Amino acid sequence: MDCSELNSTEKTRTSKLLNEINEIYQDIREESMQSETTGGSVEKTVILLKEKAERGDSQAAFLLGQLHYEEGRYAEAEVIFDSIKDEDPRALYQLAVIYYDGLGTKEDLSKALEYMRTVAFWDSSEVGCIKYAALYNLGQAYLEGFGVEASSAEAERLWLLAADDGNPHACVKAQSSLGMFYCRPETLDLRKAFSWHSEACGNGSLESQGALGVMYLYGHGVQKDPDAALFCLKEAAERGNVYAQGHLTACYYHRKLYSRAAALGERFVLTLRVSGYEDISAIARHTDCLEEYIRKGIAIAMFYYARCLQLGRGVLKNRDRVKSYFTQAARIDPEICKELQMDVVHGRI
User: Fold this and answer.
1) 219 vs 226: CA distance, rounded Å
2) Model pLDDT for residues 59-71, shown as the tens digit of each residue
3) 8 Å CB contact between 190 and 178
4) Do the Cβ atoms of 301 and 246 come closer than 8 Å?
5) Which of 106, 180, 208, 327 is the most buried (most CB within 10 A)?
């Protein structure tokens, strides 16, 4: 992952939406093909969708609102979504997001959760898979106490509904979140955690693939399997999971594959320096992984690379860089570095 990947996420979403619109409306596709830039294509599409919406095309109305939303024109999107929210659960869902995050308007958690709850329990087949996303967001609100009284039990109940027994068409994020939920000290059940991470990984979750690698590595909720751990960590690391990249560096080190550990650590540190990897929020949005674990991954990789430099394992010794990387790792995640430092004291690293 590099800067261009992180910065292109919004443009990619707009492009995907334009492609969807072009597949539905041939006349819009023909008009868009005459535009030389994406910006020109967007403006033409807005005009044509508006004309269709004014003639009573409800699908065009929603897509117009969504196009405004993706372009960051939240006030315009809000007006359109509000006008069709009673007939289109997708519009109601997007309004809930706008009010929840305060996008172009004042944050209104009460209204956001009311709308999200209506979508989650919308009594019609028209709601489709968006109900799973609404259930997931409600669960997140209860877990964190946003707009409601915090309740782990209610969060669990809602996420189980959103996960729908591992249905690949349900909310994969809820499946992965249940894996994380059952790893918490307050709700610890590692067998359930492993089961849900397995379901989510099978449905494409990058976060759960990295988590499975760590569970196989340490035997958490499953019998230790170093080969399965290495496979999961390598796959997840290649797909951009920072937590997996950190643990893969540690895995190579402990297998005494010091050259690989040092090379991976060095590549990781260089990427941090030149590509904006320090923007943890951007990485979280791009990979759909939790910021907490991104921090852990960065700190682990940096710590082990510093240790390679300190001992000359797989790389030439360099005291100046050692101090810098140890300091940066401790700043990013002090707790994980304390644990690793204790391993150094006891000769485990």
Assistant:
1) 9
2) 999 999 999 999 9
3) no
4) yes
5) 208
